[in-house]
User: What shape does this take?
Amino acid sequence: MDTYFFVPGNRVNKIEDIEALGVTQIIIDLEDAVKFSERESILKVFKNNNLLQKYFIRIPLFNEKGILDFYFLKKLVALGYLKFVFPKLNEFDQVSQVFNSIGTANIKVLLLIETPRLFLEAKDILLNFRKYICAIGMGSHDFMSEIGGEHTLKNLEVVRLQLLYLARMCSMEAIDIASMELIDEKSFKDEIIDGFTKGYDAKFFIHPWQLNV
Assistant: This one.
């Protein structure tokens, strides 16, 4: 399986160390890992370091009031950044607004499913915006928080299988869930093997310990 590793947007100086561990793809996280007050200064880093263009960027798409705001996305596209992870989108109309905002830009998007509604509308989204979307993954912790259930492989079974089938339908990469597990090696091994035997192409990782496992 390929490895998609999240690096906080305010720690891009660590990217070389992470690459040395042999990861397949790096995702620079500008969403959860970066405060609203830091985002403008982060943009300057991206403007002055075009080597970062080869990585995926998890881009914030909502402002402090929870309203869709494409300022950062448009800024990065204008600077030549074309690989993005779209988080926190809730419905087809929001996805449509995002893609319409950037017009004909030749972007590659990893669509992150984090809500029940987006999950149920995922088929229509993939069929309508296939030219932009290169992979599909799941923000399973946010998803289970929306459901109000416990985050377990058993509770996520149906959704993980359905997302895998949707990825196969569109011939795109299917990326299995990220784990917060940083201690129990057996539990984490079981999760990796479970995703592999289901047929997933890749998995999200958040810590070097997980890569070692």
